[in-house]
Amino acid sequence: MDLQACIEAELERWHNPYPLQQIFQTAEPQTVVELINTFCKRELGSSIASTVFYEVSIGVVCGLQLQDGRKIVLKLLGPGESIERLRAVVRVQRYLLEQGYPCTHPICEPSELANGITMVEELDAEGEFHDAHQPEWRQKMAALLAWQLHLLRQPERIAGIDLKLFDHRLPPGVLWGKPHSNIFDFEATSRGAEWIDELARPARAILDHGAGELVLGHIDWSTKHIRYIGEQAHVIYDWDSLQLDKEPALVGHAAMTFTYIPFMPGVADSPTHEETLAFIADYEAARGKPFNQDERRTLAATMTVTMAYGARCEHSLAPMSVNTPLAVAAPSWLATGVIF
């Protein structure tokens, strides 16, 4: 595939030039390709031969084959990201790889490209994705998360790590931070969303003083990021999603997102309430001990806020409608979400 054609097709499909403009200060496809190719020649010693894939979300991700035969992934993030944090992410990846954990393999240190920051990894597309609604894969995801948090409970083993770089928790009293994508505008669509905020506010108050151990973990824990060979996890993607939080908060968020795999036809994005509770039970089994009552309150509060955030995003896209699946489900789910 041709990278310029991929960029043009993505712009035509979504009409959202913002991520490109943030990173490259232009959304003109030819200019973007020239900048990426220059980076590859300068930093990797080889120019682009072909494009394996091209995706846009918060940032831009390119799977590329270089002229020298290597296949790489370039993840480009905007100027709001910290190069110090991304360098710390690479240190965590290398530490986890040393422990046998199935991370992606960084090729070099994060560096600047135009107005953004670029991470470079080996492209590993070996293995299969699976539907985590199936108990076997749900249990494996819970066990993988428990193993990961166990390995990261002693961050002093990672040379030069500064945990403050990963702490994105909101200050007490703040209900919503900046949405994860520019397509969502919570302030402009606040009218009609009051019921969501009212349900989220008491849960957020619990999180302001949440129980549990503060630990580093992958905050975007969904099955779309994990490839398996046979029954074993082969590679896990998206390590710039590392975040410092209380263990029950990391697990509660994962329990709400672990089934997400938008490119697998016929698979529901979100787990049922029973599946979220089963994921937590699986995690507790892998962890070797159950959460205590205070930790379970933090779990439930995280699940409630996660559901409310999704409802807020849905509302932002359709502020005059309450008929989207998430908005319909949210009132009853949130009303009981703090009860196990």
From TrEMBL:
InterPro entries: Kinase-like_dom_sf. It comes from the Bacteria. This is Aminoglycoside phosphotransferase domain-containing protein. It comes from Dictyobacter kobayashii. The lineage of its organism: Bacteria, Bacillati, Chloroflexota, Ktedonobacteria, Ktedonobacterales.
